[in-house]
Amino acid sequence: MYENMTNILIVGVGGQGVLLASELLSEVAIMTGNDVKKSEVHGMSQRGGVVSSHVRYGSQVFSPIIPYRKADIILSFEQSEGLRALDWLLPEGKIIVSRTRLVPPSAHLGGLGYPDDPIAEIKAKNADMIAVDADKMALELGNPRLVNTILLAVASPFLKFEKAVWQEAIRKLVKPKFVEINLKAFDLGCDLAQPKSVA
Fold this sequence. Notes:
6 strands
């Protein structure tokens, strides 16, 4: 961890729940006595644009922005965004990435292109990665908006907060009618974090 702080970078595109994920993580850190700072970039979030959130917690945090190459964990809700964010990761850091593939309009209209296989490119860089079929799992649970909860759960063993604290934060921040399905998604994500599921 960087100077007694933990640095988590969350990336994705608009509508994937990046901001709720950062709120849940921040709430868990606050509930366990940490100082917390977070910063969000909304880049046209309503139109499928890039969304990112820096979350930093520890005994004392002065800046909400993670220094370059100092992220302990990257949570990526979309595979090409994970590849794009990879340079922020510590050499010994971990990236947890959804296999979701969302090609932005700019890739077609602006001729920017989209990587053929972002997951393979991340692997080629020798990153410590867990790749998750989060979209498929969320759909099987009956709600495509559960990707954020699933990915947080996969990360949770490495963040070392008690499961009960995560559950309490979900009950506090998620709309009541969605609490139970989010708790179920969290359980499923925790199962995925076991060594047998590492990609």
